[in-house]
Design brief:
Blueprint: H1 3-26, H2 33-44, E1 48-52, H3 59-69, E2 74-78, H4 85-89, E3 90-96, E4 102-108, E5 115-119, H5 126-138, E6 140-143, E7 146-149, E8 155-160, H6 173-176, E9 179-184, H7 190-200, H8 214-226, H9 231-243, H10 253-258, E10 259-261, H11 265-281, H12 289-300, E11 305-306, H13 308-312, H14 317-329
Helix pairs in contact: 1-8, 2-11, 9-11, 9-12, 9-14, 11-12, 12-14
Protein name: MoxR-like ATPase
Enzyme class: hydrolase
Organism: Rubricella aquisinus
Length: 335
């Protein structure tokens, strides 16, 4: 058996397992298929996801369900303005024994898990956000001068309320860039909301069953990184990301006028991984240019910012991205 044949078989087998996982999650998360797909996409790509939506849209339920279905050790932290780094990372405490000797012992914080839900992440102060940033990027923390590795895999799914901004600390660009995808969670349509009412207000609630475990997820992430990507898809990613940077030779007049800062190379890396994960979730052997167009908003919107004049004119980042996708790829971006 050639290496190429073995890889194709691994892609097909992994796609079948992921289809079962997606179906299992959908049993408890009704009417949010795109949200489920994007969240799975972020985890499969080895990254973190930022879930943006009003309260009551099943964001916490989604993270709990993913922890069960993917077989991950999951924790949840409610972020508040008085939350300190030690409340997340852990701390050393001085303990004594019966013999009178004393020694420091490290007590792990909730970040020592495989799937961390950072609820309302923008309510924490800059020091706490900075502590989380290191963990998200480096997969380890430093406490009392000692490096402590986090479990593998390690993923953060953070939530943010786009409506209520009083008493919040906007995430800095450096931290936003660490999120592979921004996942907008919208209200369900009427039929989906009816199904939610019937499914969640009875005497029993649907329970999720494990489909993967940590080792299986790591293996699936390895398959994603080995999936072939065609030259056309690669060029489409480069064309799109480079055109979104104001002040560069690839940017058009509209971007130079409207955008104050654009995506860096990490955006291209994220889009490259995301299109591979999307193909794997759909049971396909390779990503397409359509995947680039579909995932561009989730990858780019939190890595770009409008200038004051553009905001005053009523422009949106979503509109700028849609125009770029139409110009560079000749397609419509996902809503």
């Amino acid at each position: 058996m050639t290496d190429e044949t073995a890889l194709l078989q691994q892609i097909e087998a992994t796609g079948e397992v992921l289809a079962r996982a997606r179906s299992e999650v959908a049993r408890r998360i009704i009417g949010q298929e795109r949200v489920v797909d994007l969240t799975l996409n972020a985890i499969l790509s080895g990254g973190h996801g930022l879930l943006v939506g009003a309260p009551g849209l099943a964001k916490t339920r989604l993270v709990e369900t993913l922890g069960t279905v993917l077989g991950l050790d999951a924790n949840r932290v409610q972020f508040t303005p008085d939350l300190m780094p030690a409340d997340i990372l852990g701390a050393e405490v001085l303990e004594g024994d019966a013999g009178g000797s004393r020694a420091f012992r490290f007590i792990e914080g909730p970040i020592f898990c495989q799937l961390l839900m950072a609820d309302e992440i923008n309510r924490a102060g800059p020091r706490t956000q900075s502590a989380l940033l290191q963990a998200m990027q480096e997969r380890h923390v430093n406490v009392a001068g000692a490096r402590r590795d986090l479990p593998a895999p390690f993923h953060v799914l953070a939530t943010q309320n786009p409506i209520e901004q009083e008493g919040t600390y906007p995430l800095p660009e450096a931290q936003l860039d660490r999120f592979l995808l921004q996942i907008d969670v919208d209200y369900p349509d009427r039929d989906a909301e009816r199904a939610i009412m019937l499914a969640t207000t009875g005497s029993e609630d649907a329970a999720a069953a494990p489909v993967l475990d940590a080792a299986g997820l790591i293996a699936a992430q390895s398959v994603v990184r080995r999936m072939p990507v065609g030259e056309q898809v690669l060029e489409a990613i480069l064309d799109l990301v480079r055109a979104a940077r104001p002040g560069t030779e690839d940017a058009g007049a509209a971007v130079n006028t409207a955008v104050s800062w654009g995506p860096g190379p990490r955006a291209a890396q994220a889009l490259m991984l995301a299109v591979r994960s999307a193909a794997l979730l759909d049971g396909r052997l390779a990503p397409s240019v359509e995947d680039v167009a579909r995932l561009a908003p989730a990858v780019l919107k939190h890595r770009m910012a409008l200038g004051f004049a553009a905001r005053a004119e009523g422009q949106t980042i979503e509109g700028v991205i849609a125009a770029l996708v139409a110009e560079k790829l000749g397609m419509e971006a996902a809503a």
